[in-house]
């Protein structure tokens, strides 16, 4: 079963809805939305550049990714009504993970030239919305999101807006992960109950799964020769990597041999997959409170020639 919320835009695939779980979160007094800025920006860039036509200002500044980012972001805040918002960013390619494993994300191509000037531009737009940008050298946006989610789960019901399945390890009763689906307005809403129903996994098992199967996108191998199907079967049957290792004699000879030959990489891959939740971020929770200044946003939109987007914020804002 695939879970999506339908807000008037045709979803990629129809399926059972999970509005009751989302509504339960929406009734809380404080609702903190943590935005995976890089995920939204890259998604917006490639969704609008595949035709070969890039949106630009009259001065030639590319703005297609920022324009799309605003559309994704605005839809989400309208649907989930956060009282507090933070946007988290990667701060460069060098992190503690690249120190652990030099091949980490080494297969990533360089960013398209038209996207590069939009990295700083999008942060200016986020600031115009009165939203705090957060990032820290040596860490990924995922780690900032994980830290803020765990730290402030006692202050608010937390929503993580992303397209990254790795974030599912953060899910708990106070943290909901919103996985963006195809198009604008379609979300898979992950609670612990739905993650268990859909994949028969707990949030912690997402980390063990990645340790076994690796991640081609992030370029770490896991156990060579073990793919997603086998990794999923092992985790579902035995629970954790520790339990799998304790019961190695019960495994088939082929699987046991692969694991024994790659034990060091198994543990390293699991460590690379784990989102750190202890990033030294010092902002107080109240700093994330969101109050929209329409005039400020409109001024930025006019500067970037986003006339059509101005219509999005001239009505009622999606703020509790």
Gist?
This protein has helices at 19-26, 37-49, 64-80, 96-100, 118-128, 141-152, 192-199, 203-213, 228-238, 241-246, 253-261, 263-273, 294-304, 307-313; strands spanning 5-6, 31-36, 84-88, 132-134, 157-162, 175-180, 186-190. By secondary structure, it is α/β, with parallel strands linked by helices.
Beta-strand portion reads 5-15%
pLDDT < 50 stretches: 1-28, 316-320
**Alpha-beta classification:** alpha/beta
Q: Assign a percent range to the helix content.
A: 40-55%
How many helical stretches?
14
| DSSP E strands, number | 7
Mean pLDDT: 89
Summarize the main sheet.
7 strands, mixed
Order of helices and strands: EHEHHEHHEHEEEHHHHHHHH
Q: For the record, give the distance between the C-alpha atoms at the N and C termini, rounded to a whole number.
A: 31 Å
What is the 3D shape?
globular
Radius of gyration: 21 Å
Largest sheet: spatial strand order: 1-7-6-5-2-3-4
Outline the structure in words:
The chain has 320 residues and is of the alpha/beta class. The chain has 14 helices and seven strands. The chain has helices at 19-26, 37-49, 64-80, 96-100, 118-128, 141-152, 192-199, 203-213, 228-238, 241-246, 253-261, 263-273, 294-304, 307-313; strands at 5-6, 31-36, 84-88, 132-134, 157-162, 175-180, 186-190. It has a seven-stranded mixed beta sheet, sandwiched between helices. A hairpin with a 5-residue loop joins strand 6 (175-180) and strand 7 (186-190). Helix 8 crosses helix 9 (228-238), helix 8 packs across helix 12 (263-273) and helix 13 (294-304) runs antiparallel to helix 14 (307-313). It is globular, with a radius of gyration of 21 Å. The two termini are 31 Å apart.
